[in-house]
Amino acid sequence: MAKENKMNADVVIIGAGMAGAHLARSLREKGVDVLMLEAGDRRSRGDFLKIFYENPVKGPQAPYPSIPSAPHPEDNGYADFYVQDKDTLNENLFIGAYLRIFGGTSWHWTGFADRLRPEDFRMKSLYGVAEDWPIDYNTVVPYYLTAEKRWGVAGDPNHVWGAPRDGAPYEMPPIPATFLDKQVTKALEKMGLHSAVFSHARNSEIYDNRPVCCGNNTCVPICPIAAKYDASVDAQKAEDEGARVEVNALVTFIESDKDGKITRVKVQKPDGSTFWVGGKVFALCGHAIENPRLLLNSKQEYAREGIANSTDNVGRYLLTQANQDTTGLTPDPVFPYRGPQQTSGLVERRDGEFRSKVAAIGTSFMNNGWSGNSDAINMAHDLIDKGVVGQDLPRQINEQVSRHLRLNSSAEVLPDYNNRLELSDQMDTAGIPKPKITFKMDDYTKQGLKVGLDINLEVFKNMGATEVSHNDPYLSNAIIGGTTRMGTNPETSVVNSDLVTHDHDNLYIIGSSAHITMPVNAPSLTIAALAIRAADHMEKKLAEIP
User: What positions belong to coiled-coil segments (predicted)?
Assistant: First the structure.
């Protein structure tokens, strides 16, 4: 039995990641009473680093242990976390990685700081596929600028990746291209293709009292010195400015009255105790898996199919991207593992009329070898098995790893009503139904990746690489979206263009779960920008509430 309201706030924010942090900070700047409820815990960067160094697994989740009271996916355990049907498991294994900690999933993001392009908001109008967003690029521009100032974005004003800046400068000079980038660029130029450096939420000079990137090359899963921005920065600033924060506070149920007003949420602590939190306005900022999971877990008298789900759209239109890696051994060293993990990419194939037939692709030149973080470890095992020992072991490792090159291509996936999250009949360690995933990769995406693969193979040929290989297309673990998408029609969407649910006018859903499409420019900056925009709408909404 949950205790009566222990806490109340004008705005109750569920989740302290990218969306929740920016929303909380923006509301506090307006003087609004804010409470953030974070399911996970809060630890220092030093704690996370120690865990990472001691963990033999070096995947994106490695520094961030899942806790029983708020579990999240773990490396090598995605199939255990998600319940997936046989077809999904065998052909389209869903491996979406997210975190439940103070600062959210941005702790292990790449740091890409690109806006979506104007064209990305108008896929249906321009290319006849997917759907148009109910907002356009110009609507978001003022909020992009605010988010960029908060992050500190290092970028090249001569290449803005298709998103016009109208003279607005980046906050810092660009992160320079690596030696590896320059060798790939030489091969591209023989093909009439081009490269450019990415925009980063990563310091090229001291910014906001955070240091300059020194090239540790562990951006994913953790920047050891905080040169890369993560949302704990703005979550902490929101708290410093007066927002209340409750960690280890798993929201398990959202309550609605007969008029469709959200009245309170039920919170569960690690010891199993529960209490209610009341508010005037509620904002669900728990990313694209936990947002629909909570809504669907809140079935009740006045919301028979779950909160915000009167038209059965919660959990549907699940989005991700698809990836494909091409690897090879270059004849001369290209020296991976120096600098950030991704600094440059292929300019072409990110937008154009071809998107009416095949997916856009974003190809990155990977500065972290064949495996991400484990090339030397993997090679040491292989060489030791072959009897290589002593000083010959590091010599051979260095000689080979220095020539490891990987090109990664990511492709957009079209929104599909049948790609979805549901609640399974299996419970997680917190007593909540596990997410059940159904997903099928479309031919549009596969055809786009085939174009990318052909380009990558030609690059390796021009570089004289040997041992060239590639894997089959696989779903991204870094990108998750859809599941509570925005739109003007309640029959096909969950929230409106202001991110207010169609069913409940005091419930907002903010984050990539509201996104309509998932183009190759990363979603993170748009998440932050739309959270800042939502704060403006909430301020007006609160003025109308007695």
Answer: none
